[in-house]
Write a structure and sequence with these properties.
Two copies of one chain form a homodimer.
Chain A (H helix, E strand, L loop, with lengths): L6 E3 L8 H4 L5 E3 H8 L6 E4 L5 H6 L2 E4 L20 E4 L18 E2 L4 E5 L6 H14 L5 H4 L5 E8 L6 E8 L8 E8 L10 H13 L2 H4 L1 E10 L2 E3 L3 H5 L3 H11 L13 H4 L6 H12 L5 E3 L3 E7 H5 L6 E6 L4 E3 L6 H27 L1
Antiparallel strand pairs in A: 1-2, 3-4, 4-5, 6-7, 7-9, 8-9, 10-11, 10-14, 11-12, 13-16, 14-15
Helix pairs in contact in A: 9-13, 11-13
């Protein structure tokens, strides 16, 4: 819900209102906007809220009306008589295609939803949607496994962030929405990101990438990350991330649970975040046990996302560390065979995390 | 030890004895042979023992003197005054290069030794020897894991079976020697048989083979097998084995523990061979636990060999089922990372075996 006097600039706009179409890139305050909206259906407006300087700098925002039709709502708390759902580029997206510079990418709202555009090349979109439909209705998924996956709310036709017009978006749980300043690791699991059903060009492309990253050697690769510290987020460039070695991975797993960023991590949060019955290792082991048995899906090119919010931790909130699976555009039928590729990579990653936890204990004992 | 009156025919022969060199393809009885041997050093003689018709048909035998020099031995039990070690082509070899038709391959003796020629292309020989040296002296290998590996007795210079002259051979435990009519499965574990250190040509070759067999899809492939039944061994051609599908693999795992060979296996031995605390599944789980932890070696293109001797079983002998690891020509340094490729494939194979065991129990309940 967004109301008030924020000024907005229309960047791209298509509506049935001649008044609005004639004023692209104009400035409006939000009350004016609401007034205009009463005349609109299914409008998507990309705007810059100049009153929020940080957001203005970082994100390109858009707002739209829920359910493809404008609904007039009134409540005592609302200073404006109209309901508006704000969409913006995810602030904490660390990997994958981003909705910036006119590109197609996911958007989020302020209600904990993540809108992922369905990709139409390589049948990825269909594949991911098929997976979510299958998974959502699959009664063989244990409850404790389901919580590793973002909640699926269906699809919604939204104007794509690349200006290409209306496009179906998966409506998913925004798994970062409960975190203020989350440190995040996005780890693509498996020593092979291609699959037999894929095109030859796709296989060759993945084959090359797998060999030149840590995918083949470690059974996983870090795709993106951000680590929060007092001075803000450390979010290395993609090119740097792509060249990570095994030693870099170890360093990052140490930094992830340290209050300092540097060559000598203090492991402040290692025991709480990686260890213990609510820790990341325990979650990963739960996943591992499931992957040793399930033969329904093969999760090619899928990521494990680790989230850890230092501020939540310091305030004693739980869960302060989460493990989620994301990116199912390359999930294929398991055909009665376990996902040995994912499982092997997951076990390798578990070993890395275990070693960092052991190092942290050694480090504490030395202190 | 081979003595007595067996007649032998020299097929190829090179020695320092002009008397012998002048008589290729001649017939001698073993006493005569022993007499000639007193004049020889490091002789290898390929012979056909015409007195043993089955062996004559199946194998090409050779005999040689231990330690590259002839030693005169005498004991009350020996009818001949001379010690002879007989070498022959392994009767139960189900995969890999075979010492037939003038090709280079392994030989065995009657004392439980397996002589594997060191391959000199692609540095395979050096790699396998390095592995055996490293593994033999590695104090971090638990005892219960060491027994999965053939015992290594060093190397010996022997005349190669392809007639190329003297060549170093690994002297290993012949793991089939305790079995009379072993049913054997040779399963190459891992969804990738190549490794980053290999040549591009080798990688491309493996990449193609992995995609066109079950290696990529199942995380392992059956490389060879023989299954014993009343009418003898069923030992399918390599071309047939190479085209096995997932369903073929399931069928073979069923046939392996059945007394009949056909579309409706009786699972007679399933519970004893796959199940129980001495069963194959338990052994595989032990291996799995080790692979989840060990970061010393990556066992590329290595096989798990399952051996099961129905006759031993029927006579109540144990162990009647064995699990061994073989073929270490492509073992590379683990560099502190677990062998996620082997582990994933092993877990997939474990799942297959578990499912056959479960099927067998369902089948028994239906009966």
């Amino acid at each position: 819900m967004r109301t008030g006097k924020a000024c907005v600039r229309f960047k791209t706009f298509q509506s049935r209102s001649p008044a609005l179409n004639s004023k692209p890139n104009s400035m409006f305050n939000l009350d004016s906007l609401c007034f205009f909206k009463t005349n609109l259906q299914s409008a998507i407006i990309i705007l810059h809220p100049v009153s929020t300087k940080m957001i203005f700098k970082k994100n390109l925002l858009c707002c739209f009306y829920g359910n493809n039709s404008f609904k007039k709502q009134r409540s005592p708390e609302q200073s404006s008589p109209y309901s508006i759902t704000m969409l913006k580029v995810p602030e904490h997206q660390v990997a994958g295609r981003q909705a910036i510079d006119g590109k197609l990418g996911p958007l989020i709202d302020n209600s904990g939803h993540f809108y992922k555009p369905l990709q139409d090349d390589d049948e990825r979109g269909t594949r991911e949607l098929t997976f979510y439909h299958s998974f959502s209705s699959n009664t063989r998924i244990p409850h404790h496994i389901r919580r590793f996956f973002p909640v699926f709310h269906g699809t919604q036709l939204l104007k794509a962030s690349d200006g290409s017009g209306l496009r179906p978006h998966l409506v998913l749980q925004d798994i970062t929405s409960d975190h203020l300043n989350p440190s995040i690791l996005d780890i693509k699991i498996g020593s092979r990101t291609w699959y037999l059903e894929a095109s030859n060009a796709y296989i060759q492309n993945c084959f090359h990438r797998d060999k030149t990253t840590t995918t083949v050697s470690l059974g996983f690769r870090i795709c993106g990350l951000q680590i929060y510290n007092e001075s803000g987020f450390w979010k290395p460039e993609r090119k740097l991330v792509r060249n990570f070695t095994a030693d870099d991975v170890r360093s990052i797993l140490r930094m992830f649970v340290s209050s300092n960023v540097g060559p000598e991590p203090d492991f402040s949060f290692a025991d709480s975040v990686y260890g213990g019955c609510d820790g990341i290792l325990e979650r990963l082991m739960e996943l591992k046990t499931w992957f040793e048995d399930q033969t329904m899906y093969h999760f090619c090119s899928c990521s494990v996302l680790l989230l850890f919010d230092k501020e939540s931790f310091l305030k004693g909130k739980t869960p302060f560390a989460e493990v989620k699976l994301i990116d199912f555009a390359h999930v294929v039928d398991g055909n009665g065979v376990i996902d040995h590729n994912f499982l092997g990579g997951l076990c390798s990653f578990i070993k890395f995390v275990s070693q960092v936890l052991a190092d942290s204990k050694g480090s504490t004992m030395e202190d």
